[in-house]
Amino acid sequence: MKVALLVLLLAACLPVTAQFRYSPASPQVGQTVSFTYTPQETQLGTDSLIEGRFVRYGAPNTMQGCRPASIVMARQGCDYVGELFIPKKDVTGMMVLFRNSRQPKRADLNKGQLYAIPVYDASGRPLPHALAGQASVFTRTNVLYEAGGRPDPNRVVTLYEQELQQYPDLQPVYWSDYLAAQIRQRKPGYGPKVKAAIESYLAARPEPTAAELTSAAQLYESMGDFVKAKAVRERMKTLDPAGSLAQKDRAMAVRNETDWNRKKTAYEAFKRDFPTSTYLPGLTVMMTDGYFKNNDIRNLVAFVEQQPASQTDVLMLNTMAFQLADERRSLPEAEQLVKRAMTVLNTQTRPNTVTATDWETEQKTRHRQLMNTYARALEQQGKYADAYKAYQEVIVPDDIENSDPRTNERYFLCALQTRHAAEARPVVEAAIQTGQATSRLKAALRDWYATQPGQNPASADAYLADLEADIRAEQRDELRQKMINLPAPAFTLTDLQGRTISSLALRGKVVVLDFWATWCGPCIASFPAMQQAQMRFQNDPDVRFLFVNTREGGPVQRVHNFMNKGNYPFVVPLDFSQRVANAYGVKGIPTKVVIDSNGRVRYRSVGYNGNPETTVNELTMVVEMLKEEK
Asked: Its domain of life (predicted)?
């Protein structure tokens, strides 16, 4: 019974003469067009969920922002019917496509031509732009691309030719689009033909406009003729000495100037000649950066103060001010820079592309960033009371687990200076309990606690240990998951002092190997942290740190010079042949390996994450865990 019904349905849906039909046959503006779509001979022939999409088109200047919209359709048997209204303004036709509503890329695009409904005048003649407007849909919008299709270059050329045959006076509107379509069509001999057409068109124009010259230059460039393109652009600059091209060249000259004093002069001249140029904001940001990089900080502040808020990069100023404050240089200027950034932030208006909620969140985040920098600048100048107040705006007690350990440290140190340690204590305790505290912060809290009534150094140590108990337990559990257990290859090396270092003599000790080279930036960056880790065990005879120089590729004197200059208290065995590094499977440096007292490799890490606190804590914990196993 079901099979018989299916046969009847198929028989009832035999193909008709046209897939897409509309009425009236020559629609005019202000009318409603009725259409019928029969999908049987298309790739949507077996689909039951079909939707229509349409886009209105007109002259090229009306195509910007042209977006397709859905059509309300009703199914009648095997057909789909619907209606489209033709507005009275700026519309010379409509293009329609059909697709599966649940699989949009499954679409009937009429072999890439879409289904066109041109608009006609009262005499039955297509309106101006009714044909070329279809080509504009293909060349000036993404409608076809978004639907999964590609325009047929031959069809596009034909549409332009038909339009210009009917309306020759539209040549100034479509000449460059028509020639660009021929370039994409790439018929044999198109190059000379198109170039001749460009020259003929420009010659016929007594005074070509800047837009026409721009189009000509773009056409030449698309064919690879950059000599002619440049000649046209030079002609544009003569035609419009203050135009976009002239501004672009002048802006590029400012950017390329290497002498700082000449760059400043060139910038000021550009600003005077083109005060409303779209290139000016970018140049202003570049000059701001230039003042900073040239360490011209006093003039940087004066320059920034003169700029409008629209040309001021708040985050750039914040970065500059923080670096100055952190390095203890130009501190008053650092304070002025961040104050200027805060003033600009308070005057900024919400962009239309950002929701009110997102804008409020972003502004709060930026305000905290600026206040953190402001507090740092004040603190470094000894203005601890003001710095403490500023840090209070930065610290969020309910979100300490996402705080910055260094900021927490500075907050408490300012609290100590202003006798607010008791007030800051809950925040610091939470920072320690959530792993957001530096070693210096922990030491500062411990030392302060030891001076409180009824307390002493021993009780302070117990207090700190209790605060760290949970987080240390979690970190130990995580470390246990990372621990390994492999035999440690035996080695014998000579260190920089000429002493023999052997794994056999180190048996019974926990040994930390740090494989490094003088040319390795991350290796050197990790040295301060490694020095701190080594100092933790400097009085422990059962722990040894060895900084194995490997992959050096140069004379041993280079290593001597480096270590003397850095004044590092390290034992440096030399592995110039890379024999030990290869035996330990070192693939990249720095690589840190920890060997337990039984001669087993228990821990390995490659690279340096840039966080000395994490490096020190992790290595310290590994060593302590291995010592406990003895």
From this structure: Bacteria
